[in-house]
Design goal:
By secondary structure, the protein is an alpha+beta fold. It is built from twelve helices and seven strands. The chain has two domains: about 160 residues, no CATH class; about 70 residues, no CATH class.
Length: about 280
């Protein structure tokens, strides 16, 4: 999805054009994408469909940028990165915080959390644009598409209890705030996304999800067996769609066989591009 360079360009654009969108943590823009996509051994850290992945993201952001605030002393403890790593893995620290919840606050900078959430929204919006072939007049739909994919996870889990220190409110409020901003900027984002997709040789409406849906519909409509043959290799429909998408993206051709029963292939089509594939499948 969006390259790290495009993510950074959008972060900077929003910080310059949107009131209240302030990035104050040193070097955050240059580091946030690597933290999410690479540094902690999980791509798209924080977006797996379970809360564990998001807590891993919180731990990562705490290690890289966080601190502990001591309400009794009225100050941050200014613990080092190594101390933060030890804290994350220390049952003793967690015990102390649970025993004195009125004293200690675990602090992660608001801008780090906002940029982490924005990273995921931009990824999902660009994917929606690629799969759905949305026009610029309906550019807000790609943002709403991303919102629908992510909102239930963030709002209806304990993550919704997170609150900010910059006056926006809960983490759910941050999500709503970001979505409003991105809808306002959706035409600008659309043009940025479109330029990047074209640079990668990708066409709107021909994303992997679109190809999968097209093939699934074709199989169901004609009452074909749920195994599709890609160059003679039998695969479940979704896996077959993924394989043919990858082959065509690499510039390779593919022969697709559709069956009425195991090994009883009744239709074969040969394609050399994604556009030819959807035309032949009638999508």
């Amino acid at each position: 999805m969006p390259s790290w360079s495009l993510h950074k360009k959008i972060y900077k654009m929003l910080s310059e054009e949107v009131e209240g969108f302030v990035i104050f943590t040193p070097d955050l823009i240059n580091r946030i994408d690597k933290i999410i996509d690479e540094a902690y051994g999980e791509h798209d850290l924080g977006r797996d469909p379970d809360a564990a992945s998001f807590w891993k993201l919180l731990n990562a952001l705490f290690i890289e940028f966080g601190d502990i605030y001591d309400l009794k002393l009225g100050r941050f403890l200014n613990i080092t990165r190594q101390e933060r790593i030890e804290f994350v893995h220390s049952p003793e620290w967690w015990r102390r915080i649970q025993e004195e919840p009125e004293r200690y606050l675990i602090h992660i900078p608001d801008d780090a959390l906002v940029l982490a959430l924005l990273h995921h929204i931009l990824d999902l919006a660009m994917k929606c644009l690629l799969d759905r072939g949305i026009t610029i007049e309906r550019s807000g739909e790609m943002i709403l598409c991303a919102y629908e994919k992510i909102r239930q996870y963030y709002i209806h889990s304990q993550l919704g209890l997170l609150s900010t220190s910059i006056g926006i409110g809960t983490f759910a409020d941050v999500l709503e705030w970001l979505i409003r901003i991105l809808i306002e900027k959706s035409k600008q984002l659309y043009n940025l996304f479109l330029t990047e997709l074209k640079s990668k040789g990708l066409e709107l409406g021909l994303g992997p999800r679109a190809i999968r849906d097209c093939m699934v519909h074709y199989v169901k409509e004609r009452g074909y067996y749920g195994i599709v043959y890609i160059d003679g290799t039998p695969l479940p429909v979704a896996a077959a769609a993924s394989k043919v998408y990858s082959k065509l993206r690499r510039g390779e051709g593919a022969t697709i066989g559709f069956a009425k029963a195991p090994y009883l292939i009744v239709e074969r089509i040969t394609v050399s591009s994604l556009k030819e594939l959807v035309e032949k499948l009638g999508c």
